[in-house]
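Continuing the batch. This is chain 6 of the set; chains 1 through 5 are on the previous pages. Same settings as before, nothing changed between runs. Recording input and output for traceability.
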Amino acid sequence: MNVPDASYTNAIGAPMLLSYWKDPNFNPKERAFYYVRVIEIPTPRWTTYDAKIFHTKPPANCPTAIQDRAYTSPIWYTPAK
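Output for chain 6:
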């Protein structure tokens, strides 16, 4: 990330991920839920954008970047009765 320019490149990670996972503790008699959580690439924080626009330095007491997280909706499993 380029802090003075308030820019970043998307050169890390993969454009597409594919995975298979099997719960080693799965019990078909118990309820369960599963979800996926990912960490996004670091991007400039809003204060970093403001510093560039207003030609000032970013505040020293806060980070210049933010790294968001994303979560999927849960997948619920309910045993058959």
